[in-house]
Amino acid sequence: MKQRLSQILFSQGFGTRRLCAGLVWNGEVAVHGEVVEDPDAEFETTGLRFTVAGQEWPCVDRALILLNKPAGYECSQKPKHHPSVMSLLPAPLRERGVQPIGRLDEDTTGLLLLTDDGTLIHKLTSPKHHVPKVYEARCKHVLTAAMVEQLLAGVELKEPEGKFQRPPEISKAEAAEIGDETLLRLTLLEGKYHQVKRMVAAVGNRVEALHRPQFGALVLPADLKPGEWRWVGSPAEVWGQ
Ligand code: URA
């Protein structure tokens, strides 16, 4: 589909139509390596890449990105005590309504997915779809075989209202490395509030640091530093297709 350049910029979160036209008039926008100064110039949007002030952007119907979440950031859009993860993203991504897919605690680090696709958020957070999430929990005390067995068998988590949740589904729990008896690596198929911390507490230990290296089939890239983000090509990469 062909669209005018100012319309394309508008759809990608670069502000009002007027602001978008202004970016073009000011010579800040280049398409296929050439500065375009006519906001009404039309381009085929499929596979289009453009630059604004030197930064490259893909033209996408829906944005899907992964962020290496550092500690000290809240996933909420209206954070209470710490800055929001949204402050780590450039304005066009915030402007187009990108939001976290599920939440990590303020002190949890690792792979956080964000999108402006409401249907995808629903699918990836719904317990029905059983999307595996891998966590590495550094525990205060040595993890005994009994603790790991208890986690695999399923622990009961008390909700704030006093009800018991059914045991969380855990597909794998192991003391991660020989000689490292306080590191627990586990894969959860659901995402309840403070789930890992509450599960570890329920077996008599305590999480001191929590990291998520994997969400679905997506692994946190080794060269992505804390606070940095990257485009994900398509949701199929999360499903492993
Ligand atoms: N479980 C937790 O306890 N905290 C997180 O941030 C994620 C899973």
Automatic annotation (TrEMBL):
Domain Pseudouridine synthase RsuA/RluA-like: 64-202
Reaction catalysis annotation: uridine(516) in 16S rRNA = pseudouridine(516) in 16S rRNA
GO biological process: pseudouridine synthesis; rRNA processing
Top-level lineage group: Bacteria
Pfam families given in the database record: PseudoU_synth_2
E.C. numbers: 5.4.99.-
Keywords per UniProt: Isomerase, RNA-binding
GO MF annotations, alphabetized: 16S rRNA pseudouridine(516) synthase activity; RNA binding
Protein role: Responsible for synthesis of pseudouridine from uracil-516 in 16S ribosomal RNA.
Family affiliation: Belongs to the pseudouridine synthase RsuA family.
Identification of the protein by name: Pseudouridine synthase
Species in which this protein is naturally found: Pelomonas aquatica
